[in-house]
Fold this protein.
Amino acid sequence: MSECKQTLLNSDTEGKAHALQNDSGCGLFVSGNPDGSRKVSVSYAGCYVFEWDHNYLILVGLEGTDAAGQKVLHEETLLRCPVDLPALDAPSSSVCSAVPSHDRLPCTSLPISQRDCEARGCCYDPRDRVKPCYFGNTVTAHCTPDGQFSIAVSRDVTLPPVALDSVQLANGHSTGCVPVLTNNAFVVYQFPLSACGTTFQMIGDQAIYENELVASRDVKTGSLGSVTRDSIFRLHVRCSYSISGSSIPLSVQVFTLPPLPAVSQPGPLSLELRVATDGSYTSYYTDSDYPVVKTLRDPLHAEVKILRRTDPDLILVLHHCWATPSTNPQQQLQWPILVDGCPYAGDNYQTQLMPLSFTSGLLFPSHYQRFTLYTFTFVDSTFQEKLSGLVYLHCSASVCHRSAKDSCITSCPPGVNEK
């Protein structure tokens, strides 16, 4: 029997797998449920989330070990959430239930309603008469109307847990820049916006205040090297106030520093050209099926795809596709199918480009190009006689990296499919 473990697959160009565990630096929080399942909370700005086609996407896989000790990917799923879907500020029940009663710290003074408590991003337990409104097992931050930062950090925002006694303001070391509440599970800071190294800037009618919390690491040094077993923790907090009208803060943002950009390096890039058995593109002809026999004008459903890449910003661009009566793609006798990425205009049965999106069920639609051509046979141009033998399909393609300056989209003349 194989032993399975859950993994998250990072959407980098190498397709590396990352263990499903707490990683506050990447906006990933994992907790267990009583029924044995696991709940995963992922920040939209996290390392493993990317934005494509108005959706936030994350690739989740189930990885196991076979009898030979080799890692095997049993299943993978692409989860998505629309960009314009509003998120709730109230913490999830698991973030709240994970805090035992003896570790709870009050989020605000009493009395307070459940609605007001959750509006501050805190947990509410009506059964607790002493501390009904308390901090959840995460980072809780808000700006007060009287101009104060309030930041609570749980030790379990990282794995291994962050050393709370090492958490401090990055630039504030003066009197008053110390925790106002602490226990073995939480540390709470509260200080004026004008103190403790807070930076200030004006953007339009918005007054922006920013500060950072960091945790130092305990590094052990020996004769042959140094090691540490502490997590890296760095938290950036921003408060924004409107200078016109009410002094109530318009927004509060808590985010860890962004991850480093992906590393690019030279290496092999593989593409595959194959033919589907029908227009659903759910099954494909194998080597043993060739040569495939078709009646003239029958549709032939072709697909070109990028192999073994998970970068969502890679776009497969088809340049030319053509047919020859031999395996030699340079043979003088040939028939164009796609020219500069568009159907050949001189064909009376024009090739049809198949548009792709996430509704097609593909993890990375931009890694694919599909088109339908209609079968034909070559004819001798001198005697106008049909040539016997097979017809071979060829394509030239490249991979484009989408950016703000280059959408990698091929534009076709009016009346011709675009891709």
Remarks:
- Confidence is low (pLDDT under 50) at residues 1-14, 85-90, 246-254, 257-262.
- The longest helix spans residues 114-119.
- The chain has three domains: 3-82, 138-256, 271-401.
- The first strand starts at residue 3 and ends at 9.
